[in-house]
Design brief:
Number of helices: 11
CATH superfamily of the largest domain: NAD(P)-binding Rossmann-like Domain
Order of helices and strands: EHEHHEEHEHEEHEHHHHHEE
CATH architecture of the largest domain: 3-Layer(aba) Sandwich
Low-confidence stretches: none
Bound molecules: nicotinamide-adenine-dinucleotide
Radius of gyration: 20 Å
Length: 291
């Protein structure tokens, strides 16, 4: 199926990035949120981020103007239903996503493919809430969307080949690379990445190293561009903990038990960069390790 229009539900940090890359690739984009402030903020951010790309000569001024002209924002979910491809990217909460799907389904066009950008919720379960599980799959972008090369494409148990191939074509058209994953907790990236971060937390918890030595060890010893604790702060410690719970519950293996020190940081509200403090304290000029 040749996809021409894309509907994005949820205009948060991921939704605005998805609208951005889709519009620049030539798709007509309808961006939806229930919060008018989120929509206004998203449009402002997209314009700012595209202007930065013009400044770096990555796109031309004309491409920016054309891209911005392809984005329509709406508070009405019915307007999203007519898109060839819908990407749900609202808050990571299964009840919220179920309600969105329930509201969306009556408005879907016959050909519409529906996808979710969820980081951890079962694609098969979300698909079962629709009238078209064979036309439903995971379309999982990485953060920040305009910069990160990968998209994980996750097939639910019922996803058909045509849906997968249509989504693959979109990934190629936006200039990104797909990794295909089956629908199991954490898919590929988070299944491998987040337990590594959790293990770095245990290494800290058990006193094997401090924050600086653990991050330096992995940067210089494993050639990682960022240390695992620095990366955890970037992702958000609440998000890391939530993914560990999904792995622990979904795979029922004690090797995925969340580190008590990670839980303690989250309980304290030390959630990483977004909170000003996590494994590092960001409130001064330079980040200072908290341990
Ligand atoms: P966010 O909190 O920045 O944005 C969520 C947006 O959804 C908000 O603007 C909120 O108003 C909106 N929303 C809530 N209920 C809605 C509804 N009923 N209808 C329409 N909009 C609604 O969250 P985010 O970081 O952009 O995450 C969105 C999704 O992307 C989640 O499923 C998350 O797991 C996934 N994801 C996040 C990351 C990341 O690093 N943040 C990476 C990959 C995937």
């Amino acid at each position: 199926m040749d996809i021409k229009s894309v509907g994005v539900i949820g205009a948060g940090q991921m939704g605005n990035g998805i609208a951005h890359v889709m519009a620049l690739a030539g798709y007509d984009v309808t961006l939806n949120d229930l919060n008018p402030d989120a929509l206004a903020e998203a449009l402002g951010r997209i314009e700012k981020n595209m202007a930065r790309q013009v400044g770096k000569a990555q796109i031309t001024e004309a491409e920016m103007v054309a891209g911005l002209g392809r984005i329509t924002s709406t508070l009405d979910i019915a307007a999203v239903g007519q898109a060839d491809l819908v990407i749900e990217s609202a808050t990571e909460n299964e009840d919220i996503k179920n309600k969105i799907i329930e509201g969306l389904v009556p408005h879907l066009a016959e050909q519409s493919i529906v996808t979710s950008n969820t980081s951890s919720i079962s694609i098969t379960r979300l698909a079962s809430r629709t009238d078209r599980p064979e036309k439903f799959m995971g379309f999982h972008f990485m953060n920040p969307v305009p910069l990160m090369q990968l998209v994980e494409l996750i097939r639910g148990i019922a996803t058909d080949e045509e849906t997968y191939l249509s989504c693959l074509q979109v990934v190629e058209k936006i200039g990104k690379t797909a990794a295909s994953a089956e629908d199991f907790p954490g898919f590929i990236v988070n299944r491998i990445l987040v337990p590594m971060i959790n293990e770095a937390c245990y290494t800290l918890y058990e006193g094997v190293g401090n924050v600086a030595s653990i991050d330096n060890a992995m940067k210089l010893g494993a050639n990682h561009p960022m240390g695992p604790l620095q990366l955890a702060d970037f992702i958000g410690l609440d998000t890391c903990l939530a993914i560990m719970h999904v792995l622990h519950d979904g795979l029922a293996d004690t090797k995925y038990r969340p580190c008590p020190l990670l839980s303690k940081y989250v309980a304290a509200g030390w959630l990483g960069r977004k909170a000003g403090r996590g494994f590092y304290d960001y409130r001064g000029d330079v980040p200072v390790p908290t341990r």
